[in-house]
Structure formats: structure tokens, C-alpha cells
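[User] At your convenience, examine this fold.
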Amino acid sequence: MGTVVVTGSATGIGRAIALRLGAEHAVVVNAKDSVGEGRETADAIVASGGEAVFVQADVSTSRGAKEVISRGREALGPVTLLVNNAGATRAAELGDWDESHWHDMLNTNLLSAALTTQAFVSQLGGAEGAVVNVASARGLPGRARIGVAAYAAAKAGVISLTGALAQALAPQVSVNVVSPGFVNTRYFDRPDATDDDRARIEAWRTAVPIQRFVEPGEIADAVAFLLGNRGMTGANILADGGWTLTRD
């Protein structure tokens, strides 16, 4: 039992992680913008008999990263576990790139993990801790797509960051990463999706060997496993339903 901060945990994968961990730990739920949904996630944990608090903060800034750790600690006790899940996917084809798009993807997906881990470690003292980063199969060599190149580059950075932190923080803190493939979130059920979007999504689905998208709860199970396994550090669990075995 301990306090775990889960960044970007108002919806989707982050929410599933927060709910899963809420059965064993006090949970700091975090979001930058989705305040109502973040509070609902914290309330759901409390309703199930757990402890939780919602902290609104932009963890891609030093101030926000420090705030989510310090406010979580004040409300629920020492923070010994961290899940860096904050992130977003936005497409931009070559020719439409600009500084804003690349900065947004790098800050949201990569810088947030670096700054929040730094804030987490600075308050840990002599206690043991564990960090799990959430990357993406798109961050693996040969799996990027030009339309999401900035996102893929950021997630490749998360994987690389995990290895650097695992070496630097051992043996006190384990640092691992989960790389999801296609996950069944509302991204794939958007009301504004075009016929081309739906055709592309179905092509992705049929390309996955298990013939379905991975469920958010399955990602949450992988995160919980890594948080509880002190014998693993620097590991990358690929939770993609076998997608990276294909040529798509």
C-alpha cells in the first residue's frame, strides 16, 4: 500500500490504470483540462472503498509536475509510485508541420514524463519507489507513420528515457515502460470520424493477430505488474495484441 500518482488519468488508458491501482493504493488522479472527468475518476475510486484525490496540473511544466506530487503527498501521504501516462495523439502530415505541433507532441508525451519523474524522485528521500512510463508501439523502430511522426518520436523518446532513468535510479527506484498498440478507447469511436477514418480503423483492427484492439484494463494490468515487481527495471512490456509481428 502506498500513494501512486497517475498522470493523465481522467479518461481512457489513464482512467483504467487509476481504477485498477485504486484497489491496492491511494491514487492521485491528474489531468490538465478534463477536470470533470478527472473528479469522476477519483470519485469512482472512493466509491469502491479506496482513497483518491484529483489534482489539476499541467505536468509538461516544472511547476505542474511539482504540484501534482506535492499536493498528492499532502492529501494522501508519501508518494512512492508514479505512472507517467499523460499524453496525446495528433496527426499532421508532412507539409503541415510547424513548431506548435512538434512542441505540443514532445511536451505532452515526453517532457511530462521527464519532469514528473524528476519531481517524484526529489521527494522520495530514502524510500524505495517505482516508475512506469506509458509509451506506444509507434515508438518502436520501423513502426512510426509519417502522419504521427511527432507523436512516434516522442514515444520513442519515452522508451529511451526509461532506460536512462532505470540505470540512474537503480537500485532505489525501478523504472519500466509499457508500450501499447491499438487500444480500444474513444479515439476509435469518434462521432466526427469519416468513412475513410472508419475504413482505416477497421484495417488496423484486422491487422492485429488477436483480431481486436487491446482493452484499457489490459494495459492497466501490465502497469500494475511492473509497479509490483522489484526484479524488473529498464523493461518494456509490449501490449499490442501481436501487431508488431505483422508488416502493417
Residues 88 and 104 are 9 Å apart (CA to CA). The first helix runs from residue 12 to 21. DSSP finds seven helices and seven strands in the chain.
